[in-house]
């Protein structure tokens, strides 16, 4: 009798372990996270990354970053990390220069003029303000407010949260703008860092890291960032 009880208990433990392992694996498969340490695009060779100009590695409080000169420096990637995602969050740690152009496209994912999303800034009078843009089918929306300014020449964390029914932007973990939006997954396109895909509106400044998560994140889930 005792032997039967022991065998039953061991079988229960085995089933529980397998079940938990499958659940954890399923969670990992359902949540896709991608981190681009921008300096690795220079240090490592990738067949699907085209380098424009001569972006340079520079030091930052967080590690090696990359400086973009605002004229010709950029990376073009033959990949679309947000492909088929129903919602996602893109974060970036960057430092915009004090003497860049007014309109700057920092990250572009998707098509050149079709379904796409962009992280953009506007620079004016020593300050900048955020622009998170998304185009999905017939729907287009830019989250931008020229009153929400920040000094140029400093490090910042920005986040653009794209959900099924809304868009939201954050700077240093603080919500800036949120609007209703009907989003459908982007299925085709490529990626660029440092300029728009059609090589217009170049970014001038430093970028340390970009992270893309396949879900709607809250500020407490954002990348660690110290001012």
Automatic annotation (TrEMBL):
A biological process term (GO) from this entry: carbohydrate metabolic process
GO molecular function: hydrolase activity, hydrolyzing O-glycosyl compounds
Spans through the membrane: none
Protein name from the UniProt record: LamG-like jellyroll fold domain-containing protein
Signal found in the keyword field: yes
Superkingdom to which the source organism belongs: Bacteria
Coiled coil regions, renumbered to chain: none
Pfam family, one: Laminin_G_3
Species of provenance: Mariniflexile litorale
Entry annotated with the keyword Signal: yes
Record keywords: Signal
Signal peptide: 1-21
Gene3D superfamilies per record: 2.60.120.200
